Amino acid sequence: MASVALGACAAPPRAQPTQPPSVVATPALSQRPATGFHVLDPFEQVKQFSRGVNFGNALEAPKEGDWGMTLEEGFFDLVKSGGFATIRLPVKWSGHALRQAPYTIEPAFLARVDWAVDNALKRGLNIVVNMHNYDEIVQQSDPEHDRFLGLWEQISAHYKDAPAAVVLEPLNEPNGALTAGTWQRLFDDTLAVIRKANPERNVIFTGADWGGPSALRGMKRPDDPHLIATFHYYQPFAFTHQGAEWVQGSNQWIGTKWKGDSGDRVNVDFDFDQVAQWAKANKIPVWMGEFGSYGKYGDRVSRQRWTAYVARQAEQRGFAWAYWEFGAGFGVYDRANKTWIEPIHTALVPPG
To answer: How do residues 74-84 score in pLDDT, each as one tens digit?
Structure first.
């Protein structure tokens, strides 16, 4: 997404709000019967990530339900039975914490995140918990520096005894004020904070410039053995975001096809080869944390071609992936009709 200003996980069109269920605060995982953290090699963890899906438009909204998506326990069963091994959980921590030190996270919101983490773990799923839609830090990074670290100090301590299947992702799609150099320094500071409580848990590392495939090449791999690199893929943007209400000028792209001919394929191949070469040189495994196409206007034949090609090319290079997203505008599941959206689901998880 390096060449564009907005991605799929920017604010979607407003939907009728729905209300999340009431949540009773739960103790930190560190205060529950310990399942125990065991060090997991990051290359092995990426193999275990395999195929995943984002639970987008829920906990990264200003409030869960504002964007028409409220998480349900049944969604976790669907992810498992649908052939996925990993959930990426976008979370707007910044919208549920004090603005002043010590930047305390709302207990009820933390309990809601715990509910999602617990439901994933009970089903043997990996779950990546990230920092999503921290709007202020991409506008002015310095004034938000201490708060950002304060939030991560709490999150890291809270999950310090969780199983290795719980992975931490410091920030979704750094951009704006977070240029490559600024983001590199902030990531290093954040990683140092996370390492106080989680010295060996795998952490997700991404590039600036919206975390696109070219962004990693502008970054220096931190000197830490417990990292997984990530990038997001929405190219060609005029195809994947045609008619997206939150992208200015996107209506002119409506009707864009992805034919899957040699010209279409070579662009995907080039982008993925660049990532693979960087990863090999830096001895780090790769997880494509987002990719997808907006379904309101894109024709399903083109979407199926693109989705299948991107997923298979990622797999051929040893990249795990997580589709954006489960049940909203880019979704793979039709919540109203309680069925997988075809042929998108089989493009992601072929039968057999």
So the answer is: 999 999 999 99
